[in-house]
Amino acid sequence: MAAIKSQWQSLQQQIIACERCLRLREYCQQIATDKRKAYLGWDYWGKPVPNFGIAPVGLLIVGLAPAAHGANRTGRMFTGDRSGEWLYRALQRAGFANQAHSENIDDGLKLIDCTITAMCHCAPPDNKPLPEEIEACEPWLSQTFDLARPRVMLALGQYAWKSTLAQARARRWFTAKKLPEFGHGAEVSLAGDRWLLGSYHPSQQNTFTGRLTEPMFDAIFTRARLLLTS
């Protein structure tokens, strides 16, 4: 366990120091300088955002990328934006977090048997990383999977679903030729008593329109909890 903890800390520092994608680094730094009017008093993080949580872990949540004025501002995954408000409320209700609010890295929030990562650790313009940027970030995701050793993986959105299946295939947890389709509540049994769950991303585009409701979101984490305790 001590070795894994040391490797995890090393991974986190490597992510923070990453300079592989010039477009993303320039964009994050520009946002950190220009700032949003509501956050003029903030000292933006502006660097790649590391994983939030520890390793190994029961539940690994995979998102797309940090939000420009959310995690790129606060330095913690899903912290400081509406998506995070939805996520941490659901995690707290399911017993995966000690509190439901997430404002900054010093707010006392702790995850319980849960870690949050992303396909891309830098905030991208229009929330759309380029394929080559996702590819450049893949080694960080791969190392995250290796160290986290999750039993349940939750993909938030279709891109995270495909990326998580690629990680599962690389480890021979998933060997079928046909990829299962993404959908809210989609579930795939993987080798080694592991599971992949799918959920709509708690973005405002989904939550404001009612495509994703809190009961729908809660059901995903209830299922994750059941799988981990079965």
Descriptive overview:
With 230 residues, this protein is an alpha/beta fold. It has one domain: Uracil-DNA Glycosylase, subunit E (3-Layer(aba) Sandwich), CATH 3.40.470.10. 42% of the residues lie in helices and 11% in strands. A 5-stranded mixed sheet has the order 2-1-3-5-4, sandwiched between helices. Strand 4 and strand 5 form a beta hairpin. The longest helix is centred in the middle third of the chain and has 18 residues. The relative contact order is 0.15.
In the predicted model, the low-confidence regions spanning at least 5 consecutive residues are: none
Number of domains: 1
State the separation between the terminal residues, measured CA to CA. Answer: 24 Å
E-strand count: 5
> How would a textbook summarize the main sheet?
5 strands, mixed
What's this, in brief?
By secondary structure, the chain is an alpha/beta fold.
Secondary structure blueprint with pairings:
Layout (H helix, E strand, L loop, with lengths): L1 H16 L4 H13 L24 E5 L7 H4 L7 H12 L20 E5 L12 H18 L3 E5 L1 H13 L16 E4 L3 E6 L4 H4 L6 H16 L1
Parallel strand pairs: 1-2, 1-3, 3-5
Antiparallel strand pairs: 4-5
